[in-house]
Amino acid sequence: MDKILVLDFGGQYNQLIARRVREQHVFAEVVSYRNTGVEKIKEEGYSGIIFTGGPNSVYDEASPHFDPAVLDMGIPVLGICYGHQLMAYMAGGEICSAGSISEYGKVTLKVEKESPLTGQVPKESTVWMSHTDYVRTVPQGFTVSAVTDSCPCAAMECPEKKLYGVQFHPEVTHSEFGSRMLHNFIFDICGCKADWRMEDFLKESVASIREKVGDGRVLLALSGGVDSSVCAALIAEAIGKKLTCVFVDHGMMRKNEGDEVEAAFSKWDVDFMRVDAGEQFLSALKGVTEPERKRKIIGEEFIKVFEQVGKKIGSVDYLAQGTIYPDVIESGLGDAAVIKSHHNVGGLPAHVDFKEIIEPLRLLFKDEVRQLGRELGLPDYLTNRQPFPGPGLGIRVIGEVTKEKLDILREADAIFREEVGKAASEGLLPQAASQYFAVLTDTRSVGVMGDARTYGYTLALRSVTTDDFMTADWTRLPYEVLARAGSRIPNEVRSIGRVVYDITSKPPATVEWE
Ligand code: XMP
Fold it and tell me: What is the spatial distance between Cα 54 and Cα 67, in angstroms, rounded to a whole number?
């Protein structure tokens, strides 16, 4: 099997690069620059290497560097963003701070010369940039192959040594021909064959779970969402009845959700258990307003419940979670910065009373998880569900979480989801709404109803369009849909006095508000 090494220098999109490569049926793995060297790379027999982006400047002493011998191994290298600057720096080029002309977001790429990397890419196309430094002088033997209005070296190359660098991010979907350029690199420059499939991942995962668990028992944290449901099906395929699925109703689920999850999973051929722990979670969250603290408390309470259940069942060695890659990367594991502690990763306490935590989906993205679910034969209503975060409405009630606020949010959120869902099923949305929900802010505002003054909460509606949740755009919902939600919500949920729509993409915002 041909494989590509994604050499991780700490960027936010590193796994996304691997995902884009795997999507073209070539295996790719992300390895931190700290954990490998030229010798190891040679032993592994990679067909190509991609240097990732990173938050640093190559001239910072503390910034990641690598043995320049990697450029002379004869293995094709593609540098992206920081990786592009690092390649230029290692080969003797000059890097500069772009200062006020730094580029963030969509810009027009202009291809200046024919190159194997830009085959079938038009002379002008949109790419996604996010950088403050840029390559001012390319190293000897390199030429500039593309520019933007502000960046004199948006792409450079030395085809004789199979070295290529791009300042933009071809891995994000907003780069129009990004996948094409990665395709050109993998197949035309590295000469890979497309022979890696999700069914191989499935077979390997089943075998490795069986081997690891042996005669032990596994407790699975099931929320009813896509990730934990696919995880349940995968582990059940491997070890059958040695798996117990535990659904913890933490009192912060959406309207009717607890009962729906119970109804769906009690029909499955697995051991299913529901634990009502609403009071426990709410009392742990009393008086807490800081989002990271809330996330950590929720993560800790989850583990406490699983430990209690594990003791009750007896001889449970492993806790399984449906953690996926974005949870890992945003929680700041590896070399990336902490964005938010996803309850099942950064929110975990230091000590967990299980032999090990098993996370078979840890390397996958949402759309890969859906694909795996289909491979496992899960029904569409499960594999196509929109995601719901483990901490639930706890991170959609801004500030302190109380039962009263949760009840208000549950009602308002149900109305908004009903309106968007209806419009989607009638084919009235101009683009897919990948995830839509309401957020109860802690801002109150004055209004007037029936000649009387009101002072209600402000509710924010959020809908995003994305396929990997690493970057996302706000959905252009039809005015009619927004108008219906904006009129129904304050009328049907009296504590809400004002409704606003969130028009921020990710970045700079995140999908959830906390
Ligand atoms: P953000 O807010 O990080 O969200 O842009 C990206 C996706 O992840 C979901 N999300 C979570 N999922 N545990 C989860 O299981 C969490 O702690 C968590 N935080 C965010 C979010 O709903 C979106 O789909």
Answer: 17
By the 8 A CB rule, do 432 and 465 touch?
Answer: yes
Q: Which atom of ligand 1 is nearest to the CA of 330?
A: 3
28 — phi, psi (to 5°)?
-140, 140
pTM: 0.76
Half-sphere CA count of 126, side-chain side, radius 13 A:
9
What tokens appear for 502 in the block?
């969130």
Domains belonging to the chain, first-starting first, are: 3-189 (3.40.50.880), 215-392 (3.40.50.620), 396-501 (3.30.300.10)
Give the N- to C-terminal CA distance of the chain in Å, as an integer.
41
Percent of the chain's residues with pLDDT above 70: 96
Q: Which of 511, 513, 514 to mutate to test the pocket of ligand 1 (most atoms within 8 A of CB)?
A: 511
169 among known catalytic residues: yes
Long-range contacts at 20-25 (CB < 8 A, ≥ 24 apart):
20/170, 20/171, 20/178, 20/179, 20/182, 21/50, 21/182, 21/186, 22/196, 22/368, 23/179, 23/368, 24/179, 24/182, 24/183, 24/186, 24/187, 24/194, 25/194, 25/195, 25/196, 25/197
Active site residue 81: yes
pLDDT tens-digit map of 278-297: 999 999 999 999 999 999 99
